């Protein structure tokens, strides 16, 4: 070893040759009892001879996607490779596994020699402090079964040819011996039970006086050799058998006597027909008073056929495992292959819907979309069911707003319920926590399944969703959900079928209602994973009630009740509705704020209530009126109230099942200043009232619950988008949909093209397919991130047809920012684009608004500079939305909307002393009122120039 550096140079020596010889000699005869001990001792000898710090042997598990350290050695002052020897994922070191399959060894002299794609291996080098490493494949019958690792952590090593050859030669002994030991152990387990129990009646039994002499035998043993019992009893082996058979038997007997204890031995010998048969011998010594062996009692089983059966069984097991893997792969491929064309179907239907169609054509498009959504629903059910079978269905734990999740789940079914004339009611009781930690997507999936069934099986009446807070223990809340309908009901005999796969209460081929019969099975499993149970009560012809409870941790991030809700204390509110459920829900929500609630079942009662309380402290401030009453509708009631002088200042809110086109304008003409749709959401109700009473302005009131339609979200900033997808149909769809929003994109057909494009141009958003030829999306993303370094960060969104367990996590691990599955929900896609635009605009071009106006704001208000900056940053966020809205209004020549937005821009700019924008906004408002389109465009251009 040189004293100038820490490199080791070991050539062949007597010690190394001796080590190789001793290792192979020892491993040839090594039995399962001493296997682990001798193996570790050998690793220690290798480590000492080559001055290594640690050595380990990895073997692949029966599931080839996992591996396990079977044995490891390390110097006293060095940490072991693994503190806990457990199954590890093979794909944790993709470059290593891929390379070791192709090469005889991997020699790494330093971390710097690792190639760029060895990301995880480089991380292991850094984390564990590895200086150098040699990896040698372990093969059995030319099949890779694992690998041996030789590492140095205290000094660098320059692996030389002779050194590598020695370690490769030694490593040859490990997999062969292990294979034999594994087989022996497996065989012992089998023989201990199965062979003796099944074949005992045909067992050979004999007793030996010494190595070459019988004492007695049974018929089975004698018949095996074509002899009679009398031919063998008390006879010498060499007197009754041919020389080869006698030598073979005496050799075995010697080994059994030498053991001097109960023992088992497998050996092959020819029977009287000359056939080679495999026998399994068990021996047990019978001792005299001096503890010497008097007889050796032996039993033998002919395991020739059994061994063949075991081999066949092992092959069948391998085939079954391969079939299971193939099944999972098939499901993944099925998901990918079906979702890809479905993306085209959804996309082209959406494009078709945006064209000029007749009423009949629109109906056809709606039916096609409905059928496509049903197909996607079935696919998702099958995939979830496969996850249940594989025990891979998992639950996330993230912070979310429980009330919002419930409202979102119910809202999906309101249009269908209204179409059928069914009322849906939602009541979230007061004690139910606002913010919890759990899985909002899976909770909504359960609610969707149950509410969907309720709507499907209910032809008339109502559906109520009640959410209650049951108990709390150690910050864990038990939330109960109850979904009650007035549908067809379920018989007692059929209830037990509901939570079994592919079953429905009506299983006839002519049944009226469709579905896979998997929804409730999946829901039941999800509820169990969330710590609860699901049950159902039903009466045929009357309806059903599904109950389930879940356990969720109460979030410490839960916000306090907003101050604007507290301001409703002692406000007098009249509810005009002939439906008791509606009134009960609205009353409960209002009473949480301390409001004084009055109720009326019809128009006459409502007018009487208003008049009788007119000159008292209970004078009605707000009236919430259901559109359709028994004696007159809401418009007629409003008209009547407006004729009463002291009732004209009452704020009127219209309550409808669904808002039809033109209804808002009509409602305003009759005196309604706002409207609410059923089922009523508590926050929307209270916020609406607060806005009507002027307790908060509309912008502030809607800040916590922005209503956004992505199809209207055209932006003055034209984002730079790259679409990476090898499927021509997908590219056409996305390009066409982007075009409807005045957006364009560049195209790349594989990861290699995308990498080149990203290196030549800065993109705001990259939509990246994952499965592509040449270079897939994961590798491309990883290389883009490496290319970007710690500076620039391009937003990369996975856009893939894969929907199996772990696909989202795989995308995020590769460096992607978000994930959207095919068929693509284009509303979500445009929301992602808009968020990116806001991030860019908010951070970039509009910063000069702050710089140019902060001094005047500080001087005019006396605020400190940080508070003033915070106000201006909030203003910019509002400014982005206003500019987007003004753009749409100008494009549609909607002067009324344009005037309103200009007025809002004028007010916010004036308040913050941003004089330049204020003056232009004032001119824009006037031009909009005068309906001068060209003037509006010119002024708006000046506003945008001023902002940038």
TrEMBL record:
Residues 263-315 form the PAC domain. Residues 864-948 form the HPt domain. It is an enzyme of class 2 (transferase). The modification Phosphohistidine is found at residue 903. The modification 4-aspartylphosphate is found at residue 769. Keywords: ATP-binding, Kinase, Nucleotide-binding, Phosphoprotein, Transferase, Two-component regulatory system. The keyword Transmembrane helix does not apply. Residues 572-693, 720-837 form the Response regulatory domain. It catalyses: ATP + protein L-histidine = ADP + protein N-phospho-L-histidine. This is Circadian input-output histidine kinase CikA. It comes from Clostridium oryzae. The gene is barA.
